[in-house]
Amino acid sequence: MIALIITTALQVVFYYHEEIAVYFYVLSGLSIGGGVYAWCHFDSKERGRKLSQNMRMAIGLAGPIAVPIYFVGSRGFKAAGKVGFGLLLYLPFYALYYVAWYLTGVVLQMAGYYA
What we know:
By secondary structure, the protein is an all-alpha fold.
């Protein structure tokens, strides 16, 4: 989560330097995927399931597709459906992303960065 805050803040700082900001945008996305992957990793250990290398990569890079597959495989279709197929895991990460984006913008504006 700290990585997400830092990369998001740097994305805002370099907003007008697109050639740099794009890298921080990608890092922010990878931080979100990495956070969801970490949760799935620890969940699989708790459930005594082993994540295959392909599933690890899929969760980290294509989570909105792979996380529901993981949830159905680890809980069954009915139980996975009750928890939104795991897609609710993304809510705290995206909330943190937008809060960090907004607060960094406010701080930079107060400091006269955009003047």
